[in-house]
């Protein structure tokens, strides 16, 4: 037995198992990165299919296709799958692939734990999705699982909570691994303030994950014991308080939204300098802005729950604290624009997605600022205005940044250039339809259409129909993305090591495709490799 | 070239401890929240009963505050439960008494517990109950009815501008105690 395990340990460097075993037992950061990205793409399509069920039902007023219970399961599952299955694993996949390459490390710090963090995920999502086939159906109280409603469903809640626990364990282990890698495995000369911004944003994100995923685990464990073991954390009859759940949940939930966006900031901060052929403007300011956003994210949670009733002083505090976040975020937007200022810009697909991100994330950020204002929040709370807001920052924000990153690094991963023409079609198709999909939802929300309702008053019919058409067009357009990736993996123009003529950084010094083992001998890093505007001063 | 150096393991161990501590922090939020609500009166918490002697004896006869009484019965409880008086005009500092009436509509004994709340929230800290049925479990036999008294004093320090205070009770079935009772019979 001991012999077998040593043998297994060794072959990770010398020869590789093939077939299924190669993927099941891999401890290689690049292979695990690929697994994460494929998993996240699959979940993006599953969650997208659920979104299409929602948009199909909302195409016209009245109940046509699904019953209300199933509709509620779709809204709940769509959110859980997209947040925990698509966006978070995509970022972890990108971190797995790129962080060691960017800091000149041979692999992640804890390769076996890396394997485990990935392979928990398919089990977690099998558990979560299996609830849809159970007699009591999937969770249907919204992804926030507010009690008492979430405790009034069937026993499948236990499966959902266990799935959330597994996702949390996976994320926490992934985050520990990323921090340990960044803090301990940097190549000589790669000081903290020479690290690429993607590495910085991930370092901060990983701390957020470790700080709040356990709080979510605690909150859902309390739900579990309230529902099945007779505790009364949130049960008013037993002396508990359902509002307490909302406080605990959003103490997790608000940092969570920055977990979903900070790595996106990092990706965009890599891409814009490359295609503007200028170093990133205000590198140090970007690092501090990211850290400030992360800090502020812990003290704004109650802006998600202004309408539960709280003292005026608390509302003012949470309103102003929330609005303060616009300052470091504004610094970022300013620096991206300043990076492009008088640059020699070209508009390859990664740059298009990055620019789409900057423009549309700003729209979502500004509607977020509107929601932060207490008196208007009372009117917009739980309407489609909120839906429009967070889809602008998550779809045309986080998802756009992930797609930008995939196009940017795909040649490095596969050794082939993707089809640039199809990539551009994918961008323009997506950008037109994503706006047709989500922009009308602002008007629906302002007119008072509530979210998470399968039917609506006829006055909302036109905008819903427009939104649904946008949804179907955007949704089916993403199949083109799958095809472009497939085509690029199969072949295409050979990519050089540098890939993009404006690209700087360690990841562009290794051949394309990146061999399985890189930086076995650590590279030496100096100011020529780490190029930021701040270095030149 | 092994990645798992002592420093890496130390970092990972520290971070794992941090994660465990944050799990504990999630649970710590429960007592913190209770304490916070008790101190600030948020959530309409009215606190425990107070002894009459501890309150200042001064009665502010120049001021009249309207107290509105409200009752809600949880749908799982087969009782009728309502205040005998809807409104009462009171002087801050003076002790008053009113009654709620509960009637068990079912054919078996049931134990229930009432949970009070006071609104507006800023008045919650100034509404003192010296006696309240909400402090204890209430047992009613089949078809039995009972008057349930509440004695209260509105604190003279109630902020000026607050002229209406609502005392609301929601009464729940105490499933655990009712089950014990049913098993004993």
Strand content of chain A: under 5%
So, the CATH homologous superfamily of the largest domain in chain B?
A: Ctag/Cox11
Largest interface: A-B, 44 and 38 residues
Order of helices and strands of chain A: HHHHHHHHHHHHHHHHHH
Biggest sheet record of chain A: none
* Anisotropy-based shape of chain A: globular
Tell how many strands the DSSP assignment of chain B holds: 9
Taking all Cα atoms into account, the compactness measure Rg of chain A is 23 Å
> Which architecture of the largest domain in chain B per CATH?
Sandwich
- How is the main sheet of chain B built? 5 strands, mixed
**Separation, N- and C-terminal Cα atoms of chain A:** 59 Å
Q: Outline of chain B, from the CA principal axes?
A: flat
Count every helix of chain A, treating DSSP H or I runs of 4 or more residues as helices: 18
Number of helices of chain B: 2
Category from helices, strands and their pairing of chain B: alpha+beta
| DSSP summary, beta strand count of chain A | 0
Low-confidence stretches of chain A are 1-12
The multimeric state of the shown protein is: heterodimer
Number of domains of chain B: 2
What is the third-level CATH name, the topology of the largest domain in chain B? Ctag/Cox11 (Pfam 04442)
Tell me what you see in this structure.
- The complex is a heterodimer of chains A (537) and B (185).
- By secondary structure, chain A is mainly α.
- Helices cover 67% and strands 0% of the residues of chain A.
- Chain A is built from 18 helices and no strands.
- Chain A has helices at residues 2-11, 19-24, 29-57, 68-103, 111-130, 157-184, 197-228, 242-259, 262-276, 283-296, 312-324, 326-340, 349-372, 374-380, 384-414, 420-446, 461-490, 533-536.
- Chain A is globular.
- The termini of chain A are far apart.
- Chain B is an alpha+beta fold and 185 residues long.
- Chain B folds into two domains: 1-40; 44-184, Ctag/Cox11 (Pfam 04442).
- The longest helix of chain B has 35 residues, at 6-40.
- Chain B is flat.
- The relative contact order of chain B is 0.20.
- The chains are: A mainly alpha (537), B alpha+beta (185).
- The A-B interface holds A 106-111, 113, 172, 175-177, 179-180, 183-185, 210-219, 222, 230, 233, 236-237, 239, 241, 243-244, 247-248, 251-252, 309-311, 314, 520 and B 1, 3-5, 7-8, 11-12, 15-16, 18-27, 29-30, 33, 37, 40, 42-43, 74, 113, 115, 121-122, 170, 172-176.
């Amino acid at each position: 037995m001991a012999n077998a395990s040593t043998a297994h340990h060794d072959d990770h460097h010398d020869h590789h198992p093939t077939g299924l075993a190669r993927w099941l037992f891999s401890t290689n950061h690049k292979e695990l990165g690929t697994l994460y990205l494929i998993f996240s793409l699959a979940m993006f399509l599953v969650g997208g299919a659920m979104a299409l069920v929602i948009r199909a039902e909302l195409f016209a007023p009245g109940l046509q296709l699904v019953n209300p219970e199933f509709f509620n399961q779709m809204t709940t599952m769509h959110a859980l799958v997209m947040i925990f299955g698509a966006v978070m694993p995509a970022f972890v996949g990108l971190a797995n692939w790129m962080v060691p390459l960017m800091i000149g490390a041979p692999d992640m710090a804890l390769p076996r734990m890396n394997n485990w963090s990935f392979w928990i995920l398919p089990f977690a999502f099998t558990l979560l999705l299996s609830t849809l086939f159970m007699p009591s159906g999937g969770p249907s109280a919204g992804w926030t699982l507010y009690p008492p409603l979430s405790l009034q469903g069937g026993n499948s809640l236990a499966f959902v909570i266990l799935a959330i626990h597994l996702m949390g364990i996976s994320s926490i282990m992934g985050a520990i691994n990323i921090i340990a890698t960044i803090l301990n495995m940097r190549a000589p000369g790669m000081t903290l303030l020479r690290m690429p911004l993607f590495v910085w944003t991930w370092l901060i994100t990983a701390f957020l994950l470790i700080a709040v995923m356990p709080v979510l685990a605690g909150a859902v464990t309390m739900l579990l014991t309230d529902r099945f073991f007779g505790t009364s954390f949130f049960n008013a009859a037993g002396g508990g308080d359902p509002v307490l759940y909302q406080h605990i949940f959003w103490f997790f939930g608000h940092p969570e939204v920055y977990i979903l966006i900070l790595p996106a900031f990092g990706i965009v901060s890599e891409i814009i300098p490359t295609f503007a052929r200028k170093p990133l403007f205000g590198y140090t300011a970007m690092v501090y802005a990211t850290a400030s956003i992360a800090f502020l994210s812990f003290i704004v949670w109650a802006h998600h729950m202004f309408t539960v009733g709280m003292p005026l002083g608390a509302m003012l505090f949470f309103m102003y604290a929330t609005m303060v976040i616009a300052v470091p975020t504004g610094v970022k937007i300013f620096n991206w624009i300043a990076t492009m200022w008088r640059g020699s810009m070209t508009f390859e697909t990664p740059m298009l997605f990055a620019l789409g991100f900057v423009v549309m994330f700003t729209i979502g950020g500004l509607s977020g600022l509107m929601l932060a204002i207490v008196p208007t929040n009372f009117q917009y709370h739980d309407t489609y205005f909120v839906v429009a807001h967070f889809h602008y920052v998550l779809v045309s924000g986080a998802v756009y940044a992930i797609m930008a990153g995939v196009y940017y690094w795909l040649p490095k991963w596969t050794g082939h250039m993707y089809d640039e023409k199809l990539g551009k079609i994918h961008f323009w198709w997506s950008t037109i339809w994503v706006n047709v999909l989500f922009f009308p939802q602002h008007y629906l929300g302002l007119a008072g259409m509530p979210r998470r309702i399968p039917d609506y008053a006829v006055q909302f019919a036109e905008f819903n129909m427009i939104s649904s058409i946008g949804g179907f067009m955007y949704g089916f357009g993403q199949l083109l993305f799958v095809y472009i990736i497939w085509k690029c993996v199969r072949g295409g123009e050979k990519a050089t090591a540098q890939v993009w003529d404006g690209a700087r950084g360690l990841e562009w010094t290794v051949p394309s495709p990146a061999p399985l083992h890189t930086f076995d001998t650590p590279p030496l890093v100096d100011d020529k490799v780490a190029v930021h505007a701040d270095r030149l001063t | 070239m092994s990645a798992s150096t002592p420093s890496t393991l130390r970092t990972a161990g520290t971070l794992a401890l941090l994660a465990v501590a944050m799990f504990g922090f999630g649970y710590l939020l429960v007592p913190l929240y209770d304490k916070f609500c008790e101190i600030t009166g948020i959530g309409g918490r009215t606190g425990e009963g107070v002894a009459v002697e501890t309150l200042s004896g001064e009665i502010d006869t120049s001021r009249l505050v309207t107290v509105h009484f409200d009752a809600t019965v949880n749908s799982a409880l087969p009782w009728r439960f309502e205040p005998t008086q809807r409104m009462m005009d009171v002087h801050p500092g003076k002790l008053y008494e009113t009654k709620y009436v509960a009637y068990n509509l079912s054919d078996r004994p049931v134990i229930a517990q009432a949970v009070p709340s006071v609104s507006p929230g800023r008045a919650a800290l100034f509404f003192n109950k010296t006696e309240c049925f909400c402090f204890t479990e209430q047992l009613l036999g089949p078809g039995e009815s009972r008057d349930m008294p509440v004695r209260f004093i509105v604190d003279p320090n109630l902020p000026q501008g607050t002229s209406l205070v609502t005392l609301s009770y929601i009464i729940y079935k105490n499933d655990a105690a009712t089950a014990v009772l049913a098993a004993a019979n």
